[in-house]
């Protein structure tokens, strides 16, 4: 007997069988047909899908088991996702013939390096302990980080501690007299952590690097000389009148912009790399370009004007500019050393200072209110790119010889009026700093208004966003966290290429004269005829006069 | 970033050097909670801090049941007292785009707007109003611009229900490490612009419940995001180069993510020169 299955549309009785409204409902339903309906339903649920091989019955059973095991809240809202997860889990085999190879993630390697920082080197004995407890160039990074944290500036404590240990490692490797955590510069792929260091006197390594930069002028002159030798018999090709601007030599290590040596690393745990000293040409060029750092020291800096160096040099130049502009200290902390023969006209001003043993710190309120309570303690960099002005036109013997040979050179091309550039002397107060438009150069705030007794005076630079300084009692420090660029309210306008050089001087021999126009020619012709006519008339007159005279 | 996860999140974004002092952190824990009670927000996000010359603005955003609806924004000068900002209008955004320079730090400061061209000036003078823009309006417009341009979320963190409202995806377990390093796994949390330009083939692969926003892949200019692994690879940090100061963090394989802005509030228009 066929059960009361779902009626197909073509069968009579379709649409008549409504549950609860059938005319046969008052009859006791056939238990057999009920069971059969259940069996049919179950058979339908057990039917395997042709695409995935699963069947709905098992799937529902698994899903309900999972829900009852995990008991998520509001299961009905996420039922579809649970269903998806169950299906997904079905495809992950538990037993596999291939063994899972543990992924060597880069994160594990990085963790190894960081752990290495915390290991104490073995086999050094008790001597090292004594040395460490005594005077050490290692700065107390955590203490500085605490003060800056009061102002909301700084890295997380974890990272600060890692940097602390990395600096310790640096000191144990290099002969360092003073060391300071200068700051962090962000980059595109990686960041830079920078340490400012001063070597023990006399322990610096000699610079063996050769300058990779070849001047264009030198090349030009070389080529022209070759040509001359080849074409001795032919006409001399016009010599290049291009004189490259004189190269301004960089400052000695230990003075001026190169007073400190900088080490960088990408992450604490990675080896420290020393940055090369900075040259004035690099500083001058760095002022004209604005580029992000990539994080790799050997990356080229593609810019116009072309930067003489790679990213390591650009980084060093920016560090020099930032230091010169934003390293400050409370007034009175540093003083000039008393020299016996004080020359009033010391060139470039004094560049050394020493700590003042009688320093009396001002209160936090005073440090915040007036900017004259702070002074710069790094020499500012002149336009030339150096801290101490150097006249590049000082004639050396070679130059004098060349001048005699090349008398044809126009002497008025040399800028004779190079005036000595003077910058603000060391230890000038911040109130002399000029602001940008109507914004002061520095913003001073106490770290908290609620507890003024223990507040810290904090200064933020507006010219170099990211440069901060704090002072609290006798302690103070500077730090930089940022991208390494100066603030300018105007958009960056790249320098235009220089105008095309004149190939040759324009003189009367070379310039074409303009051909006379037809009117001019006719006018000239008419003028000539007039002149002839008047000349003939004069002759006639003279002839007539002579005749008259003869008559007499 | 979520107000509830503020302390942990601040640790993760501190790689850029900017953060909050312990005082502010302490007070935010309570004041954001009170904001939630007073304004009946479902979620409160600490948006960040815009540094002015004389002071700083701390910004919070409140979200309602539909997370993609326009958010209420509040600002405070000390993280204790919060004031609601007016809703943003397109006019505010265009006017703020003309202003240059730093924020002052005083909400009632009025900028004198110098006319760009005669047409704009005529239009403004027609209304009989003088072209003055208050710093409050500039603040709202800047926050809106930043959210629109660089407010991002990981893919799968939010789902769109069939009714059109957006809510958090409770099944989101975090991106894997490989996914987290790709820009295509992050979406702008704002009205999609490029979505309808995709070809039908691409659209067929998308899941309409999770892929209803623009991804970061096609941002112009290319390279305006930096993706870095910090803390030895434990957290993925994205920093925007267009709005310097916006930092997004995500710990892979966990539900922790968020973005915060610590900066000047100025767009980096020199970006093409700097890349």
UniProtKB/TrEMBL annotation, chain A:
Matches recorded under Pfam families: Radial_spoke (PF04712)
Protein name: RSH4A protein
Taxonomic superkingdom: Eukaryota
InterPro entries per record: Radial_spoke
PANTHER family named in the record: RADIAL SPOKE HEAD 6 HOMOLOG A, RADIAL SPOKEHEAD-RELATED
Keyword field: Cell projection, Cilium, Cytoplasm, Cytoskeleton
CDD domains attached to this UniProt entry: DD_CrRSP4-like (cd22963)
Keyword Lipid metabolism applies: no
Amino acid composition bias (Acidic residues), ranges on this chain: 202-214, 223-235, 397-415, 535-552
GO biological process: axoneme assembly; cilium movement involved in cell motility
Basic and acidic residues bias (residue ranges): 511-531
Location of the protein in the cell: Cytoplasm, Cytoskeleton, Cilium axoneme
Predominant location category: cytoplasm
The encoding gene: Rsph4a
Location of the region described as Disordered in the Swiss-Prot/TrEMBL record: 1-25, 202-251, 395-417, 492-552
TM annotation in the entry: none
GO cellular component labels: radial spoke
Automatic annotation (TrEMBL), chain B:
GO cellular component: axoneme; kinocilium
Domain of life: Eukaryota
One GO term of the biological process aspect: axoneme assembly
Main subcellular location of this protein, as a coarse class: other
Subcellular location(s) of the protein: Cell projection, Kinocilium; Cytoplasm, Cytoskeleton, Flagellum axoneme
InterPro entries, A to Z: RSP9 (IPR055316)
Keywords: Cell projection, Cilium, Cilium biogenesis/degradation, Cytoplasm, Cytoskeleton, Flagellum
Family recorded in the similarity comment: Belongs to the flagellar radial spoke RSP9 family.
UniProt xrefs under PANTHER family: MITOCHONDRIAL RIBOSOMAL PROTEIN S18, RADIAL SPOKE HEAD PROTEIN 9 HOMOLOG
Name of the protein this chain belongs to: Radial spoke head protein 9 homolog
Organism: Phaetusa simplex (large-billed tern)
Lineage of source species: Eukaryota, Metazoa, Chordata, Craniata, Vertebrata
Gene: Rsph9
